[in-house]
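Schema walk-through. Below, the input block comes first and the output block second. Nothing else is stored per chain. Lengths vary across the set, and this one has 369 residues.
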Amino acid sequence: MPRKTFFQIKKVESVKNAQSIKNLISQGETELALRELQELTNTSPFQNDVALLSARFQKVQKNILLGTASEDSSKLEINQINLAILQLLDSLGSYQSEVNLSAGSGTKTLHKWIIWSVLLGVLLFFTVYLYKNNKGTSAQTYEFQYVQQGFPEQVLSKIDSLQKAGEMIRHIGLHPESQSWILLYGRNKFIHNGNLPRGLIKKLSEFKDVNDALLRGVYLGEGSNYLAWLDLNGYWYDFPENAPYQRALIDSLELYFHQNRKIRDISLSTDGSWVILWGQTGYTCHWESDSEFSLRLKDFTETRHVKVKQFFFSKDMDTEWIFLFDQNGFEAGVIDEKMRKTLIRLQMEKREILKLFMRGSTEWIILYK
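--- output ---
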């Protein structure tokens, strides 16, 4: 059996990596595809092209978080980035084939690289042109509707005002037992009813655009307990030393901060139970004993590898819980009948559920468009 040369081995590995990148794109994982492409091109003339695509993708993500770009323009931009990735893979394949055939064919390879670079430049130009024109004609407001049951009137009044102003609602934090609440909207803006811990208010008031960080959520616990988290895995908290969830929860957050894992959602209960969702299907949790909620969560993430979009649970984790998935799929325990019918209707009408917030099974709101 003939021995494989270095170039032949490298070419086989490159083909496998290229197929992996194409698979990631077909699964909608543009960010992971760009990371693999960066590794694949780190010794080729295409490094700068990949860096530009990565910067464009990060800008799209930032605009989505800020709510400054429409859904259509964001999808268009991501589709164009995916197309550019596929074009780069073809260019890389041609480049490596030329290198493997002969070291003396450098002129031919250079010509092909120049042609592909020109074509890619034209593609990038028209992509930016279409994106800017689309963005310029799109309204810089965020439209949504909602259905609710039993939600505090004071919070609903603020939601109505933000709805008219076209603001994006990012999070609604309700104290589990009192009337305290906080509403996050827009770019690190917030409204509350004045009953929040002083330490939390001070932190929120001082918080600005630190490293482009975005405030994602706030948990209000017993007394003056709270936990606030950012999209870049930063966090603030104030828990008593004897809090049942304090050590393990904060240790997990600190670990993910250093590992740069993307935290998608956090939920806590006053009995010390908590869940952190990270990555696509990763999760970390703590509770005293298994329940219907915990068994379902384990099944979705570990067995079926289903991405949980959002979830809620109460102290009674055997009955009061709900999971939301993409395409408006859901599974729930005991929830309000109006809420169940609303979720089914939105699913049939193919509406997009933006956010769901609830406190027990009798107080809930669904934001959709």
